[in-house]
Design brief:
The protein contains nine helices and ten strands. It is of the alpha+beta class and 288 residues long. The radius of gyration is 22 Å and the shape is globular. The relative contact order is 0.11.
Length: 288
């Protein structure tokens, strides 16, 4: 039976977003502080997914061999490097997180049975490549704080308590929600980006974080006046709110993951169903 295993590694490197065919003003307008000379650095975290059958020794692969392959092909060339100059493709395509994940895949694919290469630029931004041409997945992590009460208005307190437990208490309770939004699209062969990162961050901030932050969801968000704001329903509603704005940026919404507490989270995949004609239908839709 097949099993997927993951190996983690780390490296530190710097890079600069700068296209010589553009003026300084255009580079700064396009890349902001990332265009500053001589560049900036990150502590990158690499997660390599590999798939295979479990052998008689209980392993998919010998991790000592995997470690050596990662070290020689990826970590040693990249660690404490200036990425723009380390590999030839970065002269043509900027070393974005997306492009970096693809380049690492290409250097490992003949030696390891890869399923995914994920590169974390920082704890709130990462890209994943799965071997499909120029397609890449980019994830932004953010957060908001909000209160809610889990109760159906047509039911009594006793009935709601039977269903939702302490979450049905009349005055509600609060959470620090962590939100991960993943988009998918093709990398631009010159910039190495699947989407304008600032525009994506602004869309999430405008349509979700600012409206939801420091609210009582049942009272302050009209949608939840009739729909119980469970983690599942909040995730579905966020998917609905972000699908169109993200599509306007030239990519598709792939996943929304909402972590309500360390013990409770919900995720939904794909854009909001086009056939849904009302918010209530969206809440009742089965995640793709």
């Amino acid at each position: 039976m097949d099993c997927v295993i993951y190996r983690r590694a780390q490296f530190a490197a710097s890079h600069r977003y700068w296209l010589p065919e553009l003026s300084e003003a255009d580079n700064r307008a396009r890349f902001g502080l990332a265009a500053n000379f001589p560049g900036h650095g990150h502590n990158y975290e690499l997660h390599v997914g590999m798939k295979g059958e479990v052998d008689e020794y209980g392993m998919v692969l010998n991790l000592s061999d995997v470690k050596q392959i990662l070290r020689s092909r990826v970590i040693e060339p990249l660690n404490f490097s200036y990425l723009n100059q380390v590999w030839p493709e970065f002269e043509q395509t900027l070393p974005t997180t997306e492009c970096l994940a693809r380049s690492i895949w290409r250097r490992l694919a003949d030696a390891l049975p890869l399923t995914s290469v994920r590169v974390n630029e920082d704890p709130e931004l990462w890209a994943e490549y799965r071997g499909n041409g120029m397609e890449s997945y980019l994830t932004i992590k953010t957060h908001f704080s909000a209160a809610h009460r889990l109760a159906r208005p047509e039911l009594s307190l006793e009935e709601n308590t039977d269903i939702y437990g302490l979450c049905a208490r009349p005055h509600g309770h609060g959470h620090n929600y962590f939100l991960e939004v993943t988009v998918v699209g093709d990398m631009d062969p010159r910039t190495g980006m699947v989407v304008d990162l600032v525009a994506l961050q602004n869309a999430i901030e405008t349509h979700v974080v600012k409206p939801f932050d420091h609210t009582f969801l049942n009272k302050d968000i009209p949608y939840f006046a009739e729909v119980v704001p469970t983690a599942e329903n909040i995730a579905l509603h966020i998917r609905h709110l972000l699908s169109a704005p993200i599509r306007k940026l030239g990519v598709e919404l792939h996943k929304v993951l909402l972590q309500e507490s360390p013990n409770n989270s919900a995720e939904v995949y794909g854009a909001a169903p086009a056939i849904a004609t009302s918010e209530k239908q969206l809440a009742e839709a089965v995640p793709v």
